[in-house]
Design goal:
The complex is a heterodimer. Chain A is an all-beta fold. Chain B is mainly beta. Chain B has no helices and eleven strands. The interface between A and B is medium-sized, with 23 and 24 residues.
Chain lengths: 113, 114
């Protein structure tokens, strides 16, 4: 069964610190992996999209990495800000069923001053 | 370019009633997908419409239905509401069908069933 698992479920860090969120998936063969940021009560916003041939992709202070061999991805946030407090969702699509996305349950990040 | 819009933003209904939610995609986008989001379950896929046809459906009962119009606007209907239908309903639009094309989400409709 195609699955996407994220860890940790929740994370609390102090403003200015770095953090890394993890995403493990069993989707195979894999087409692309996305990271979304979702503020409370709002729709998710795309941070990065990576295909199987990409190892890393950055969007400002957000850097996503992908290891297609181990089926792992991480999202690294540098110099966190209060506005980074949100849920981060990892989403994977399969080559065989490219029109279906498989969502992780997300990591809830809270940044405190 | 305007983003995805959803109306209404908030809705309160009672058990047994029905509700219709609306989604206007980004101009030029032909695919609209609907998701239900609850605190414990994350985003659950409801269905996807492309060129006025339902292309994919998630594991939801027949009380959940939808349609897409010729201008790509989409509506979602839930009949005989249950308490468990309380959730944030999100729609997402994309140029092509879901997995191969970036999806842009709307702000969602918060449905509360009393």
């Amino acid at each position: 069964k195609n699955q996407v698992e994220q860890s940790p479920q929740s994370l609390i860090i102090l403003e200015g610190k770095n953090c890394t969120l993890q995403c493990n998936y069993t989707v195979s063969p894999f087409s692309n992996l996305r990271w979304y940021k979702q503020d409370t009560g709002r729709g998710p916003v795309s941070l990065t999209i990576m295909t199987f041939s990409e190892n890393t992709k950055s969007n400002g202070r957000y850097t996503a990495t992908l290891d297609a061999d181990t089926k792992q991805s991480s999202l690294h946030i540098t110099a966190s800000q209060l506005s980074d407090s949100a849920s981060y969702i990892c989403v994977v699509s399969s080559i065989y069923n490219t029109d279906k996305l498989i969502f992780g349950t997300g990591t809830r990040l809270q940044v405190f001053p | 370019k305007a983003g995805v819009t959803q109306t209404p933003r908030y809705l309160i209904k009672t058990r047994g009633q029905q509700v219709t939610l609306s989604c206007s995609p980004i101009s030029g986008h032909r695919s609209v997908s609907w998701y239900q989001q609850t605190p414990g379950q994350g985003l659950q896929f409801l269905f996807e419409y492309f060129s006025e046809t339902q292309r994919n459906k998630g594991n939801f009962p027949g009380r959940f239905s939808g349609r897409q119009f010729s201008n790509s606007r989409s509506e979602m209907n839930v009949s005989t509401l249950e308490l468990g239908d309380s959730a944030l309903y999100l729609c997402a639009s994309s140029l092509a069908r879901g997995g191969g094309s970036e999806q842009f989400f709307g702000p969602g409709t918060r449905l509360t069933v009393l």
